[in-house]
Amino acid sequence: MQLRYSFRLYPNHGQAAALARAFGCARVVFNDAVLAREDARAAGEPFPKIGELSARLISQAKQTAERSWLGEVSAVVLQQALRDAESAYKNFFASLKGARQGPKVGAPRFKSRKDARQSIRFTANARWSLDHTGRLNLPKIGAVKMKWSRPLPATPSSVTVIKDAGGRYFASFVIDTDPAADLERMPDAETSIGIDLGLIHFAVLSDGTKIDSPRFLRRAEKKLKKAQRDLSRKQRGSKNRERARLTVARAHAQVADARREFLHQLSTKLIRENQAIGVEDLAIKGLARTRLAKSVHDAGWSTFVDMLAYKAQRYGRTFVKIDRFEPTSQVCSTCGHRDGPKPLQVREWTCTTCGTTHDRDTNAAINIKKAAGLAVTACGAPVRPGLVPAQREETGSRGFPPKPRAA
């Protein structure tokens, strides 16, 4: 499995200027590639291949007066910009054909120097390195100071230098993890849980544990409102407005970083303590269009589920998503009686069949665990019902009997 390890960079003034040149050159080459392909499409000609674009937009362009400054940066950075344009078009065409999973992807657009995020990528061909002092040596940029928060588990294959909207620099390394080493790091577990995600409590576990929602955005709203108000009062194009913009961007970055740290710690804890985990496949995009949109985005459910998925795969755990239409809040987890839908303000209810009083969220978490079919043997190995071929009388649509066969 390939993972990214990110570390904070602290370039000096000269290195920051060199990085700005590299960002600009990569952006120009990317835009030139998009323009060349759009011109070919308008003329009804086939798209130029990446080799032709490399010769025309990099090698030949360096010899002209208009693009001579492309020689001031590493050639690998420019080549990777062409690769990015090529990948963008491949994803776009795959999305049009329906061969790409996930949301639809639009055609590549021109990049701007005012974009919130700028990045360049160095592969092994660029001969970047890490010296004994922990600095990152980049070609035509120099040795950049880097703050190490943890050691790298393996030799990285590439590094991407990123500048975010708040003016912070990061180095993102691509690492190929060792499956055997990952399995040894994670202790054995013999439990399984179901997780019900919500807004009042971020997560409620099937064992009754309730994890409060930190509400990072809500807690920072007063500070964000003041920073945004100060930004709106600054004259456009002035240095004061740029400083106010950085203040707003850094305030938002603090919220995003705190949320990501919370999700990482919680997901790692759950993966470490449990052999199998079940969650509900929520319609997050639909919920984000309701009056609860801000709270839904603030919770970060989608990121949390993605973290659980890849960490379970990395450490040999079982991760199951159940269907979003499973009536987990309507069924009694004790006797299985379906008691019907209930409004959100009903947090406790009593089963009319067995008389058990349920906490709404805990009952839902237990039903999620049952619907996921999670069970764990004494040795800690996950057990799920095996796949059974459907019989002829079981092949009808869900909730409807099969159509009778003609005689």
How many runs of DSSP E, i.e. beta strands? 16
Estimate the mean pLDDT confidence.
88
Instruction: Please give the order of strands in the largest beta sheet.
Output: 2-6-7-1-5-4-3
The main β sheet shows up as: 7 strands, antiparallel
Structure at a glance:
The protein has 407 residues and is an alpha+beta fold. The chain has helices at 13-42, 50-59, 75-97, 179-185, 216-219, 221-232, 239-273, 284-287, 293-299, 301-315, 360-371, and strands at 2-10, 118-123, 129-130, 136-138, 142-147, 158-163, 169-176, 192-197, 201-205, 210-212, 276-280, 318-322, 348-350, 357-359, 375-376, 382-383.
Keywords:
five-stranded mixed beta sheet, single chain, 39% helix, 16 strands, 407 residues, disordered C terminus, 18% strand, elongated, alpha+beta
Kindly describe this structure:
- The chain has 407 residues and is α+β, with helices and mostly antiparallel strands.
- Helix content is 39%, strand content 18%.
- It is built from eleven helices and 16 strands.
- A seven-stranded antiparallel β-sheet has the order 2-6-7-1-5-4-3.
- A hairpin with a 3-residue loop joins strand 8 and strand 9.
- It is elongated.
- The C terminus is likely disordered.
